[in-house]
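hey so i finally got around to running the thing on that chain from the lab meeting. sorry it took forever, my laptop kept dying and i had to restart like 3 times. anyway pasting the input first so we r on the same page abt which one it is
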Amino acid sequence: MLLKTTIPPLDCWRTAPTIDTLRSIYDSSAHQWHNNLARLGQLHDYQLLFESQAAHLSHLDQTSQILDCGVGTGAFSLALLESVDQPAHVSGVDISPTMLTHAQQILENRCTTLDLRWGDIRHLPFADESFDAVIFAHVLEHMADPIETLREFVRVLKPGAPLIGSVTRKGLGQVLMSLRWRNRGYAPNQLDSLLQAAGLEAVRSFDYGTGWSKWMCIATIGVKPIYKRLEFKVYAHSLGAQLKWKDSPTKQLRQTPTGGTDEL
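ok and heres what got predicted. didnt touch it at all, straight out
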């Protein structure tokens, strides 16, 4: 008999690492970060991930605005640019200044423009609906409140645009990693619930890559709905019709002997 298992929801993580702790960890690892990703095969797997989502990225061109939340050394952004095979305007936010220095060197000749900022991804320094795609790799695992973090990502995403991320898989490997990286892990159904709670639709979490990525990582994607904008347009159209009727000349009606009405 098959046993049904239920994975509990992720509540606010009270022992999540502080920003200062994370900055120290990633500053000290920045000089070898990109090479380690290459040795693990993740640079290649990141590109495979974006290529598998070509339908969600077909709108991107040289004028598109892309945001990488927790950009690190720029590996995830680089994989996206290589998968669409053209430059774009890339912005990135990270808490580690040393990581940002490496990202500048890796991405500066691959983008239409590059805007890297030191800061907290929970409070992005960008206006609402600014980006044609928002991406993130292995940052959600550090967040005390992942839903609020995702809502901030969604805030700056244009309606109809995708959010695509890579997250550490919940399991023994993640537990061992957490001793060094202070991260937790996720199961696919947990990720789906988080993205839906953040306001995304067409949500899907799935395996990707080979080797390390297939064992340790889960990809997740969701799309920002456009129905709110459409609802506003319908409402505005309806309101305009009502105002037009109210502003038209008033017509007086009288009842006819047959029970109908005539204009006076």
